[in-house]
């Protein structure tokens, strides 16, 4: 059967077709990129938004192209980054464009929240790494601003839920994306109603939770006709991109636990577990218990990742000195600078200039300031590797046995220098790939929903 994965990342989106065939009793997945488009943050007035209507249109172009290619599509599923959401009014209409998690509206919200919330007790329910980008703090900022939008909102839909809602007309929330909100009970895998009531957020905002590997609804007739796709199921997969990516880790049966870095704009470093770890140690180590597919918990740390390089390369391009990835990495490999910066410092979250932010940070902290593009890249990559090593040390202390091997998946796994520095810093073998982990995980989870694949273990054995 053929499935369409619609994978939205912070910088671009893609529609990928995946077909599973069986030859000699062995299943194989063939992937085909159908459509790729840009995604960008738009500053408008006081806020930074995602351009949801344009993204929806881009997605439909992808669906149309798939129909034109003559693909017989059995399922469609959307995955996106975490934490962001749109609000729907009681007529079912979108209230405003979704705001991007990098918007400044959440600044100071975590301190306010924890002024009268016990951190340990809170973590023991949600098990979420506290980050001000999280949905919880976005909602608190709306409350604090007395947002008229919040007052008229009927439903909250996370980004993949929002796309799926406008594809099907069904409003529901997929479990893995809800787990990024800091508002889900990690043990019951349902909403943390106690928290929701305490914050006086209306219960009706929070939709029924559907599990990955189930059908969300049917493609609306008008879209089916407009795109030429006909009747198709819209499927709930690991609609959080990280969950889909982790599902595609090519782990062998004897790897326990499966350890990974999902490497892209963010680096998500962790392991797959059967149950959440909700201890004080996990909280202090800043690990998060996110929902995975097949009943798993992805226990991981959210680390600022190749966002640094994305920003630097964009800035250099604007300055008229566009860099090729390979030459830049070659220069970085040669650079001798030893500087390491804390990659998660606030200064690097959304600076006007990343180059200036790095230089200023080094100057203010008596660190050698990188002078060339190669040296700047070297500083970023070795700082990421150092952070990975620190996170892994914390992680190992919480596991019965330390991790033996690390899979680096996603677009960032193509960065050979970072892979090498990571291997050196962690002292365990690194296996790189697949690059398209998210789309693969998305497609295979659709196959799971359709019964074409029977388990996550089987998914991991499929040849690509
Ligand atoms: C990765 C990711 C991370 C999430 C971040 C922001 O793409 O989904 O898991 O924390 O984006 O939503």
Automatic annotation (TrEMBL):
<feature type="domain" description="Carbohydrate kinase FGGY N-terminal">
    <location>
        <begin position="3"/>
        <end position="246"/>
    </location>
</feature>
<keyword id="KW-0067">ATP-binding</keyword>
<dbReference type="InterPro" id="IPR018485">
    <property type="entry name" value="FGGY_C"/>
</dbReference>
<keyword id="KW-0547">Nucleotide-binding</keyword>
<comment type="similarity">
    <text>Belongs to the FGGY kinase family.</text>
</comment>
<keyword id="KW-0684">Rhamnose metabolism</keyword>
<keyword id="KW-1015">Disulfide bond</keyword>
<dbReference type="InterPro" id="IPR013449">
    <property type="entry name" value="Rhamnulokinase"/>
</dbReference>
<keyword id="KW-0418">Kinase</keyword>
<protein>
    <submittedName>
        <fullName>Rhamnulokinase</fullName>
    </submittedName>
</protein>
<dbReference type="GO" id="GO:0019301">
    <property type="term" value="P:rhamnose catabolic process"/>
</dbReference>
<feature type="domain" description="Carbohydrate kinase FGGY C-terminal">
    <location>
        <begin position="260"/>
        <end position="449"/>
    </location>
</feature>
<keyword id="KW-0808">Transferase</keyword>
<dbReference type="Pfam" id="PF02782">
    <property type="entry name" value="FGGY_C"/>
</dbReference>
<dbReference type="Pfam" id="PF00370">
    <property type="entry name" value="FGGY_N"/>
</dbReference>
<dbReference type="InterPro" id="IPR018484">
    <property type="entry name" value="FGGY_N"/>
</dbReference>
<dbReference type="GO" id="GO:0008993">
    <property type="term" value="F:rhamnulokinase activity"/>
</dbReference>
<dbReference type="InterPro" id="IPR043129">
    <property type="entry name" value="ATPase_NBD"/>
</dbReference>
<dbReference type="GO" id="GO:0005524">
    <property type="term" value="F:ATP binding"/>
</dbReference>
<dbReference type="GO" id="GO:0005829">
    <property type="term" value="C:cytosol"/>
</dbReference>
<dbReference type="GO" id="GO:0004370">
    <property type="term" value="F:glycerol kinase activity"/>
</dbReference>
<dbReference type="GO" id="GO:0006071">
    <property type="term" value="P:glycerol metabolic process"/>
</dbReference>
């Amino acid at each position: 059967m053929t499935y369409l994965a619609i994978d939205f990342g912070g910088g671009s989106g893609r529609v990928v077709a995946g077909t599973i065939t069986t030859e000699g009793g062995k299943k194989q997945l063939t992937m085909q990129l159908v459509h790729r488009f840009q995604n960008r943050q738009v500053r408008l007035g006081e806020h930074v938004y995602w351009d949801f209507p344009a993204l929806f249109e881009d997605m439909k172009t992808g669906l149309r192209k798939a129909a034109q290619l003559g693909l017989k599509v059995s399922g469609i599923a959307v995955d996106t980054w975490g934490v962001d959401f749109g609000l729907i009014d009681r007529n079912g209409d979108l209230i405003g464009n979704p705001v991007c998690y990098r918007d400044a509206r959440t600044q100071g919200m975590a301190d306010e929240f924890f002024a009268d919330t016990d951190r340990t007790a809170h973590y023991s329910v949600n098990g979420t790494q506290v980050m001000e980008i999280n949905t919880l703090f976005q909602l608190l900022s709306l409350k604090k601003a007395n947002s008229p939008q919040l007052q008229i909102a009927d439903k909250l839909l996370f980004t993949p839920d929002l796309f799926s809602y406008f594809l099907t007309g069904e409003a529901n929330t997929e479990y893995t994306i809800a787990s990024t909100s800091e508002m889900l009970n990690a043990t019951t895998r349902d909403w943390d109603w106690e928290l929701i009531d305490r914050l006086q957020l209306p219960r009706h905002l929070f939709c029924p939770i559907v599990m990955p590997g189930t059908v969300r609804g049917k493609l609306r007739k008008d879209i089916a006709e407009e795109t030429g796709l006909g009747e198709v199921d819209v499927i709930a997969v690991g609609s959080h991109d990280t969950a889909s990516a982790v599902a595609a880790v090519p782990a062998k049966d004897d790897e326990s636990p499966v350890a990974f870095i999902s490497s892209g704009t963010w680096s998500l470093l962790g392991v797959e577990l059967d149950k959440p770890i909700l201890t004080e140690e996990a909280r202090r180590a800043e690990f998060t218990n996110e929902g995975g597919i097949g009943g798993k918990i992805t226990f991981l740390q959210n680390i600022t990742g190749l966002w640094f390089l994305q920003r630097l390369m964009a800035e250099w391009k604007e300055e008229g000195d566009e860099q090729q990835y390979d030459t830049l990495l070659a220069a970085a490999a040669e650079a001798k600078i030893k500087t390491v910066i804390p990659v998660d410092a606030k200064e690097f979250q959304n600076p006007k200039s990343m180059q200036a932010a790095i230089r200023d940070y080094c100057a203010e902290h008596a660190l050698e300031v990188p002078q060339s593009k190669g040296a700047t890249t070297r500083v970023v990559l070795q700082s990421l590797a150092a952070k990975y090593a620190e996170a892994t040390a914390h992680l190992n202390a919480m596991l019965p046995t330390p991790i033996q091997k690390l899979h680096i998946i996603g677009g960032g796994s193509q960065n050979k220098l970072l892979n090498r520095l990571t291997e050196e810093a962690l002292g365990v073998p690194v296996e790189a790939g697949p690059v398209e982990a998210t789309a693969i995980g998305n497609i295979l989870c659709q196959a799971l929903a359709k019964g074409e694949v029977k388990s996550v273990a089987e998914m991991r054995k499929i040849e690509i």
